Amino acid sequence: MFSFMFTLGLMGLTFYRTHLLSALLCLEGMMLSIFMAFSLWVLQMSSDNFSTPPLLLLTLSACEASIGLALLIAIARTHGSDRINTLNLLQC
């Protein structure tokens, strides 16, 4: 089930690339599926020593989301839109 969720997010990221916000949402869906699979694996191991890696992954995912939203706001302010096709990343 988690591999299906990850594949669905990857397909959304690959085929539906019109807006930067949709790409960021697909990345977040992929990170959430990895987090849930990793948490389930830790529960199956039934050890208390492995409880911090899923929390570390969730923390890094939250940091990635905040950086992505900050970039989205900066791009929307400078270019007026979040459409990926209108962005030329080679120009300053």
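[next item in queue]
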Amino acid sequence: METNGQGNGLRSKKKDNGDGKDNLWSAILEEVQNQGNTKLPSNKNVLVLGDNETGKTTLIAKLQGVEDPKKGSALEYAYIDVRDEYRDDHTRLSVWVLDGDPGHTNLLKFALNEDTFPHTLVIFTVAMTTPWGILDQLQSWASILGDHIDKLDLTPEQRLQSKKQQVQKWLRYTEPGDELEPTASSPMKRSSRNLSDELDSDDEDNPLPEEVLTTNLGLDIVVVATKTDYMSTLEKEHDYRDEHFDFMQQWIRRFCLRYGAALFYTSAKEDKNCDLLYKYLTHRIYRLPFRTPALIVEKDAVLIPAGWDSMKKISILYENMQSCKPDDYYRDVIVQPATRKSGGQREAEVLAEDEQAFLQRQLTALQAGTPAPRADSPLRAPRAPIDAKLTPGAPGNEGVLANFFNSLLYKKTGSPGRADAPAAAARSDAAAELDRLTRAKRPPATPPAPAPPLDLSSSDC
């Protein structure tokens, strides 16, 4: 303590003497010492909200580096290892994933409360597999989150402070490369201007751009559109065109403006933007460097940091819209296909025709003299003899029946060497009937000539 007091006194003396150069070096030394003693906080949280089947569990597993995600239920907890290479420090980022069932929203109090509110970032997930529901889902979850925050026991000062910080972060956003980048030799350059926690009165006086933060929840928000690899399927099977994707994107970006959110299009299957999302989260939460600018060229890999976008930039997408207008109702343009089957829908049950009814129909066709249709399945083989109404001795019936039973005898029955008892019984009955018919068609044998009568007239007696 004594040494520090002497150092402070020395710096004050040099400052009083007007030695600006020495004072600058002292300030740099103090900054380095402060940065060296700073550790990554361990109380930071991420809350993931979204409908079921939007890839929440898979997304977090990808950020964790886990290949085999295991889905939980209700409110899941996980953590992501975060490492700061510059300070050789690491910590764990807590992650809460809420089930998409609205009945579980009462569990939000365990993930987001008065203590965790200042240290929480929220992720809204939507999926490109159901593009027609994206806007409704975003608005629904934003409403649920807003209602929950309103019920928290926060002081008016806490609420005002959190909202001011969101305004400041948006206004002080700086494109990567326009600010001093951190280096190992100059750790004091680590902080980005847009992530300073100290409020600036000049920033408070600057008005926000059009449509920006009209709904300020006081939290960092990131919108993640998952499964963007499915966009190619939408093009092939549902005739989606670029103007449809542009229409969707401009509505999502307008939502992000209203809530001051960043936007990421990701695909865990094709590993698109997942690594960049991890770096952006650590940038917003721990102020680690993030040097990737906005990406809007590839429609399935969009990346828009909070603070970059504006209505003017969004209006560029309007030029490609020929069959729709930007303000058209979302679901009127992005329509849910009528032929799409939900995952849990059961197919209609198909009932097989009764065997005896089938055989009776064949018999009627034979009696009428019309060609009988061939049976396509061995399951249609009869398990009982033909109705006895067909008299074997009737003229012309023997040949028809013989051919019919002969077809039953030589019909293939599935895999070789495999015959069930009913089919074998049917063939046995058919063979017996065929044999009986064959015997009936043979002419009766000629009786032997009677033996000549014995001559009893001549006798030696």
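[queue empty]
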